[in-house]
Each structure stands twice: as structure tokens, then as C-alpha cells.
């Protein structure tokens, strides 16, 4: 049981190195000119089309579901890197198999619940802020419609429309209160009313994504009661394959080379695992003295 005294230290170390495995995905997708032509052709039709419908015609636009998928991939990456590092730390200390399994399951549950709770609080607070801003904008439209119309005209002038055209467009949009609010929210606040965030959905997805990633290095220890070399190697191999797959998946959002993204993610995860394995080995030896 003496070797278990370093468990908390390893958990902190694993969480610290996890942050290095995250790399914000920046979109770098070349435009499809033919699709743009078709979209512009549709815009010339007399019927009014929702902004979401227009954006959806360009398949490289990633909103809503795309954001959820990206968050899920990062959640899997978090769980995979942190739990692999944690398990390798216990394995480096030559802990008994049941302790390694216990540490892996505990790390999975603790991390998944922590991610879910954090995501819920974050998205809920963000949504509450956005909803308040929208309500304030609604109140301004009701109490000072002339000023809001002037603001909208100035926004369109800043975008390049002549003054007369900008004023005419603003006046037309202000005729319908629903359209006026939607336009002001998008143009003035920079928000999409249909994409304010769903706290419970984000929380559940974060829990499942983290748990899925954290489960990978634990699987071999469900089939053995010890932490002998074959089980440790199997855990490392499964984690390596999963790390590469997660890294390659990120190329769906970055547009970069899938092989390079996979190798980079694998390298970061391997560095985290090697670090905690070394720490576990040192502390494990010191507790035996």
C-alpha cells in the first residue's frame, strides 16, 4: 500500500501534461467556386431564405453539429492522454494489477464527471449571457426603434453599402419586429440565435467523449489481475493507435495532413506517458527503500 501514496501526485502530473495535447483547430478550407456560384444563383430568387439554409449549402461550413463533433474529439483526446499517463505512472511504480485497474477506472469516472460538470456550467453561463444580451437588444428595439434603425444603417455603410441603400435596407428590415431582432442580434452582437449552446447536450457529450478516451488504456487490465509487461505493453499499444486516430481526426477541421496530425498527437501522448512512467518508477523505488 506504500506505493499508493504517490497516486495523488501522479493524477496532478497527468492532468498537467494533458493540456499540451490540445491544439485549437483552425479552419483552413479552400472555397469551392462552383458551389459559390450555385449559392449566389439561389440568392437571386425572390423568396427569402434563412441564413442557416444558405450557409448549409456550403458543406465546408461547420456550425452546430460540427462544433459538437470537434468538442467530442477533444474530449476523447483529454481522456485518452490523461488516463494513459496516469496508468503508465502506476505501471512504472510496479503497482499491483488491481491498483492499476482501480486507478484507471477512478481516473475515468473522476475526469468524465469533472468534464461534464465544467462543460455544463460553462455553456449554461454563456447561454445565459447571450440570452440577456438578446433581451436587452429586444428592449432597445421597442423603446428606441429609430436609433436602432440608424445603427443598422451605419453597420451596412461600414460594410460598403452607399448611405441611401444602407438606410433603405435598414428601414425595410425594421418593418418586421422578428426580422429586426434577428438582424440586430447577428449584425450588432455577432450572435447566431439558433446556436446559443445546449448545456445538457454539451455536458453529456463531454462525459461520453472523455470516458471513451479514458477507457482505452484500461481495457487490457480487465483481462488480467497483474501489471506485468504484456498488459502494460498492450495498454500502451492500444493508446498509441487511439492517439494517432484522434490526431488524424483533427485534420477534418484543420484541413492539414492527417498523417502529420496523427504523429503529432501520438508524440504528445507518448511524452506524457513517458514522463509519468519515469516519475512512477522513481517514486516506486524510493518507497521500497
Describe the protein's architecture and organization.
With 289 residues, this protein is mostly helical. The chain has one domain (2-27, 62-288). Helix content is 74%, strand content 0%. The chain is built from eleven helices and no strands. The protein has helices at residues 7-18, 33-43, 51-56, 65-92, 97-143, 145-158, 163-173, 177-187, 199-215, 229-254, 258-288. The longest helix is centred in the middle third of the chain and has 47 residues, at 97-143. It is elongated, with a radius of gyration of 26 Å. Residues 1-66 have low confidence and may be disordered.
Instruction: Give the H and E element order.
Output: HHHHHHHHHHH
Percent helix: over 70%
Q: How many alpha or pi helices?
A: 11
> What is the number of E strands?
0
How many domain modules? 1
Rg, Cα atoms, Å: 26 Å
The backbone outline, from C-alpha atoms, is: elongated
Mind describing the biggest β-sheet?
none
Q: Beta fraction of the residues?
A: under 5%
Amino- and carboxy-terminal Cα gap: 14 Å
Low-pLDDT runs? 1-66
Amino acid at each position: 500500500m506504500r506505493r499508493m501514496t504517490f497516486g495523488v501526485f501522479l493524477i496532478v502530473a497527468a492532468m498537467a501534461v494533458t493540456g499540451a495535447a490540445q491544439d485549437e483547430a483552425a479552419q483552413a478550407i479552400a472555397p469551392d467556386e462552383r458551389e459559390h456560384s450555385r449559392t449566389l444563383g439561389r440568392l437571386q430568387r425572390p423568396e427569402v431564405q434563412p441564413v442557416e439554409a444558405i450557409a448549409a449549402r456550403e458543406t465546408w461550413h461547420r456550425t452546430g453539429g460540427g462544433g459538437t463533433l470537434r468538442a467530442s474529439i477533444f474530449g476523447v483526446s483529454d481522456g485518452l492522454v490523461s488516463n494513459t499517463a496516469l496508468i503508465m505512472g502506476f505501471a512504472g511504480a510496479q503497482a499491483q494489477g488491481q491498483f492499476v485497474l482501480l486507478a484507471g477506472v477512478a481516473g475515468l469516472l473522476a475526469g468524465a464527471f469533472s468534464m461534464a460538470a465544467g462543460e455544463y456550467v460553462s455553456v449554461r453561463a454563456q447561454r445565459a449571457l447571450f440570452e440577456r444580451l438578446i433581451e436587452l437588444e429586444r428592449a432597445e428595439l421597442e423603446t428606441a426603434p429609430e436609433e436602432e434603425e440608424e445603427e443598422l444603417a451605419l453597420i451596412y455603410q461600414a460594410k460598403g453599402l452607399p448611405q441611401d441603400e444602407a438606410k433603405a435596407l435598414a428601414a425595410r428590415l425594421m418593418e418586421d419586429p422578428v426580422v429586426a431582432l434577428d438582424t440586430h442580434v447577428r449584425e450588432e452582437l455577432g450572435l447566431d440565435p439558433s446556436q446559443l449552446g445546449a448545456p445538457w447536450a454539451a455536458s453529456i457529450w463531454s462525459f461520453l467523449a472523455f470516458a471513451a478516451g479514458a477507457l482505452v488504456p484500461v481495457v487490457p487490465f480487465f483481462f488480467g489481475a497483474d501489471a506485468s509487461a504484456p498488459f502494460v505493453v498492450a495498454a500502451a499499444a492500444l493508446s498509441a493507435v487511439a492517439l494517432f486516430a484522434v490526431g488524424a481526426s483533427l485534420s477534418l477541421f484543420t484541413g492539414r495532413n492527417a498523417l502529420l496530425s496523427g504523429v503529432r498527437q501520438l508524440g504528445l501522448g507518448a511524452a506524457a506517458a513517458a514522463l509519468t512512467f519515469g516519475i512512477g518508477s522513481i517514486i516506486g523505488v524510493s518507497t521500497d527503500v
